[in-house]
Amino acid sequence: MSYSLASITPISLLAEPLTHEFMRRALMVSALVGGVCGLLSCYMTLKGWALMGDAVSHAVMPGVVVAYALGLPFSIGAFIFGVGSVALIGFVKQKSRIKEDTVIGLVFTGFFAFGLVLVSKIKSNIDLMHILFGSPLGISSNDIQQTVIISFVVVLILLLFRRDLMLYCFDATHARSIGINTGMLHYLLLSVLSLAAVAGLQTVGIILVVAMLITPGATAYLLTDRFDRMTFLAIISSAISSVLGVYISYWSDIETGGSIVLVQTAIFLLAFLFAPRYGILKSKGYTH
Amino acid sequence: MNSVISQTQGEVPGIEALEVCVDYNGTVALYDASLSLKSGSICGLVGMNGAGKSTFFKALMGFVRPSRGAIRINGLPVSQAQRDQAVAYVPQNEEVDFSFPVSVWDVVMMGRYGSMNFLRVSRESDRQAVKHALERVELLELRNRPIGSLSGGQRKRAFLARAIAQRASVLLLDEPFSGVDVRTEKLMAELFLQFQKEGRTILISTHDLSHVRDFCDLVVLINKTVLAYGETSEIFTQENLTMTFGGMPPDVLSGPTTSAELID
Question: What CATH topology corresponds to B13-263?
Fold first, then answer.
């Protein structure tokens, strides 16, 4: 970027990138995906599914590659392999004496490795780097369209089942005892996770997508004791991180996915230190 | 062995089990368990760890299907009772994630979910039910507090309020006396008596025998099957308890008079 120092003002810092079509796209997609993953991250952190999020987001890799090769929307491939990996985790856990976290690690690395091998074997124009690290600055309109549709579906499902999913995360026994189908909710949440992983892949890539799926939720969790406020804060912090990350990436010419996740981590650190009730420098607490 | 409790003619029992067998992948958890508890009874479910108390609860809630036998709640199959919101489970404090970001009000409102529409939008009647339930457990002032900020006894009361708001006719309580304060214990005693008058059936799973003697008019002794059940005064014999606890001396459990007898 060849601008003289004098011409850089806060306004131009924000406005200048917007003159480029690719930046407008990148900012829009990143904010959207950030918000969607932020919303889902609340359920992931409250349900204790961080490792599951990591597993599913890696396991969608071969699905994405196969879908590309067959000319299908990559969301379909990702969905099949995401849910399939979880089914496989459940199966191996049930049929063997191996502990669950070991099974999760085992299955998702297997899927991921399979994906890597497929990329190298299938002749296509898949850019491995884009899948691994995301490329919001180079996103195609076709990918934007898919990402918008995925985001819409994820948000719709999470909105419709907002209360049921919250109850499922908090007290599955009660949910079941009043006739709510918790098995269906379990797979619904997993399906949404697979879809969100594909959306997140667009901006930060497969390796870092788990950050999008847990960090905003963890940050918001430190800031409030209300579920609705937590979802709101997670969406906001995640969307802001994404936009800020893209800007920083543009101006300092650094990798975009890493930049987005670093901003998220920085916001988490602020909450960790200064959250009113749960920060380590807390100023107030509850007494019975 | 089973001393059949007196039942008024035509009254439907709150909980009825007919030769219920439950097994998990071939391991028998419960066999030939039969009992009939009339509505409006406060009943203690007593047995060792692994005696099948939680399996019986799960069967009553429809989480496990008996491999043989039948369970009826208010005369209906479990699935029907579940649809009617008839059964409420009050968990042990240890089972609940109290750092979950929900308020006391939110928790009690969860009792209403089964009666709400698909989106779980609360109506005025739901809010009234929650308010009323909170009043009964004396937690209305704390309704906006996060659930995790409550004491052990208050937490227990919040979950009791959820069962009240649900308007459940059968309440399953898991170790309700552990870790609660005197005020909560007194309040629970009063509530149980009110529930009894309202015709609700209360089943308390515990191995705390002194509380069973104080609170429960009926008792069920189980060890993989129903060993005995009936009026607490009749069933709580040294012999029955020894049988229930597998020959272990239940002296600590049965109070001064029996201890004196033991010394004799």
Answer: Rossmann fold (3.40.50)
